[in-house]
Amino acid sequence: MMIRLYRTLAVLIVALLALGIASAEGDEESVPYVQASGFNAPVLEGWADLSTDEIAQFHLAEAEATIRTALAAGADPPAAARSHLADWLGSEIGEPAYSDKVNLADGTWHSLVFDIDAATTASVMARQDDANVVLISFVETSPDARTIMLTLAQADDALDNATPEIGLALDRMAGLELDQLDEAGIVDLPSGEWQVYERDGLSAMGMVFGNDSYVALQDGAPADLARLADAWNRTLLGFFITPDNSLYLALGLIATFGILGLLILSYFWRSRSIQRDLAMLNALAAEED
Amino acid sequence: MTLATEFEARPMPRLLRILTILTVLGFAGTLVLGLVAAGTDIQQGAVQRLFYIHMPSFFGAFTAFGLTLLGGIMALAHKNEKWDKIALAGVEVGLAFALINLLTGSIWARPIWNTWWTWDPRLTSAAVMCLTYAAYLMLRAGIEDADRRRNFMSVYGIFAFVTVLITLFIIRIVPETIHPVIVGASPQNAQGSFEATSGVVMALVPSLLLWLTVMPITLMWHRYRLEERLESLNRVKLKALSD
Question: For the domain B15-36+49-236, what is the CATH code?
């Protein structure tokens, strides 16, 4: 009877462990993230995934555009961006055509634009993270177009549209006023609602997230700017670094073992105390006898 | 016959020995599942693994305090000391589990919520639950008369279980909580939620079953035996004094 009960209990526990493992093996989750060393970047659907263990990189051939996320050693984000682009593209990288700082939820980022050659334009977001610099780069190599991605702090955070920042970006990067473009309405993309302005051969679009505006500009042969802007924005907002909090895990385990250990030790102490009292009573009884 | 023979005549039952081995092996096995086999949460990092102890330990406390409730009802109904000992064992084991739950939650909250503690309804009710059962032990130690102690602590143990139920259900009742819910949709303000993916289920289910059943019963049984021995010793002491 007893042996049957033990066996049932043992089989039950083994079966539960096996069931847990089997359920995990049969139903593996597909995480839409690239997990490179030290960071996570969202997978861009429809883009060619060229990621490695060190970088997350996606390429859209028809737009000749690449979005790359990487970590680089360094303490100066703009310098790290230039060095990284030089290594990647094999070109000399000059001073940025645009450079500013913007505060996002995960820290202060440098928003940089480099006109590398007649065909290549790179937009980079760079942020210091301990001893490394996080670099998220958008590089477009079409000789027929110049595509730029900018992140700007909202001039008026009460506004729910990026109109002022689109105007600012046009002024600084194309030398144009906003009223020189036609308002082309709102495009609803997975990343949000984007306001679009157009003129022959020039497109500008922007959206607001938090207290910042995300602006995309394209000059030259028309390409799918909405798709590029959406992918860039999702990479930027979806990027995150898995925190290293293993010390807190260790602390939690110490607390667990500590409390359980104290409980079990208290059983032993109390049991020994009973034994001691009993021995003393026995000794007293023997003395009386 | 010496006085000691009364104690030595009661070896550990085989079932308890088996349960003890199962508890140790099960605890080690579930730790391996939670710390090694289950994947790392990419948003929360390694500290999320505390969840495989945090949630099961609450349910272990639930079992132990539930047996205190049962012990209290039966002790009142049958005026039986055995049920009173079960109730006491339930409080000691349940309180240890509840403290593990509270501490692991607080340690998890530091990197995820950026605070060790917040007066959230779930956290507050869990703290009140711990204090209520800690008070049980203090009150019990202060009552000399055995019958009075049994009756009073039985009633206390029955009413104390209300704090367990409140802790269990409060996040379903009070929407202004940041404590995440794993089974079902989390409250709107929940922070630090994660999906019960297959990896989480793999580590959680065995741990939950171990803490819910085998662990509290084994520890309570040991504590019950200890109380029996203590009671026997007290009887022997009284006998020795009266002789």
Answer: 1.20.120
